[in-house]
Specification:
Helix content: 25-40%
Order of helices and strands: HEEEEEEEHHHHH
Number of helices: 6
Strand content: 25-35%
Number of strands: 7
Structural class: alpha+beta
Strand order of the largest sheet: 4-3-2-1-7-6-5
Low-confidence stretches: 14-30, 266-282
Mean pLDDT: 74
Length: 308
């Protein structure tokens, strides 16, 4: 008879409950690394990009054919980014003067099927329209007019209106991508409105600044600019104004002609008897200062002759 086997029973201790995960505001490093990597790739294509505002994992760019009234694929599809660019200043000294720069935003699609990427500047809110299938972007594109084979100077770039249709991949709810088209389209509209308001604000600030500087320019225009040569007429006019009441004909006190008992001036009577005019006969009397100068000149002349 085989011995029976007895089973040993051991009491198990209850395990301690797992601690709940701690909530923290720390962003996982993988997200920061992805954002930094995406920004570095975008800046390689456009160094003016400073931040990424929204991302769509997959988008396809269509162009509207006005002749056939159809949507044609442009050959560009890939990840879509809504980016903010560094502000631009109309004049070089605007930034030094503390003036506001014009805000800029752009839609970029990194092409998976070719080397040419898609980029569209968001400038006005009216240029963006949201439909059930596409996000419509209305803008202008460069077209080559002329035959390039005839020479580089015969072909010219001209602007023509163009409508882009951006198809953004979105799965039905409850997928996380169900609102991808709506979210990115709303971000595009907000960025375009900000750029339009910034451009109007800068234009108004420049207008006010020019109006304030206009009176100063008018005052400066009335003065003679430094380094400008005066004409002979301006020089004589200035000399005439500085002379004032100076007279060429009389530098001394007024002289009165001496008359006889008849009351007629002797100079006039002598001039008429000698056949000379009254103008040549009348001679102004010299003043005391002129007599003194004449005496000095005569004395100097006599001394010079005596020494000689």
């Amino acid at each position: 008879m085989a011995p029976s086997k007895t089973k040993s029973r051991t009491q198990r201790q209850p395990s301690a409950p797992a601690e709940p995960p701690q909530q923290t505001d720390h962003v996982p490093s993988i997200s920061r690394d992805n954002d930094s990597l995406n920004l570095a790739v975008l800046q390689r294509h456009n160094p003016s990009i400073i931040s990424i505002l929204s991302i769509a994992p997959y988008a396809v760019i269509y162009t509207f054919n006005a002749t056939a009234q159809t949507w044609d694929k442009s050959g560009c599809e890939g990840t879509l980014f809504v980016c903010q660019l560094a502000p631009i200043y109309e004049e070089a000294h605007d930034q030094e003067d503390g003036m506001e720069g014009i805000a800029r935003f752009e839609v970029v699609v990194l092409n998976r099927r070719g080397m040419e990427n898609f980029s569209f500047a968001l400038e006005t809110a009216d240029s963006i329209e949201i439909t059930e299938e596409y996000v419509l972007l209305q803008g202008e594109a460069d077209t080559v007019e002329g035959d390039e084979t005839d020479g580089p100077n015969t072909a010219q770039l001209e602007k023509r209106p163009v409508v882009y249709g951006v198809w953004i991949f979105a799965e039905p709810p409850p997928s996380s991508t169900s609102e991808m088209r709506t979210i990115n389209a709303r971000v595009m509209q907000e960025c375009a409105a900000l750029a339009e308001a910034s451009r109007a604000r800068v234009a108004e600030g420049r207008r006010v600044r020019n109006e304030q500087a206009l009176p100063v320019l008018e005052e400066d225009s009335q003065a003679v600019p430094m380094g400008r040569q005066l004409s002979l007429r301006e020089m004589f006019d200035q000399q005439r104004r500085s002379d004032g009441g100076w007279s060429v004909q009389s530098h001394g006190p007024p002289s009165h002609p001496v008359g006889d008992d008849t009351g007629e001036p002797l100079s006039a009577r002598e001039g008429s008897s000698n056949g000379l005019g009254a103008q040549s006969a009348a001679k102004p009397q010299m003043s005391q200062s002129q007599n003194a100068l004449l005496s000095l000149f005569n004395k100097a002349k006599q001394d010079y002759r005596g020494n000689g």
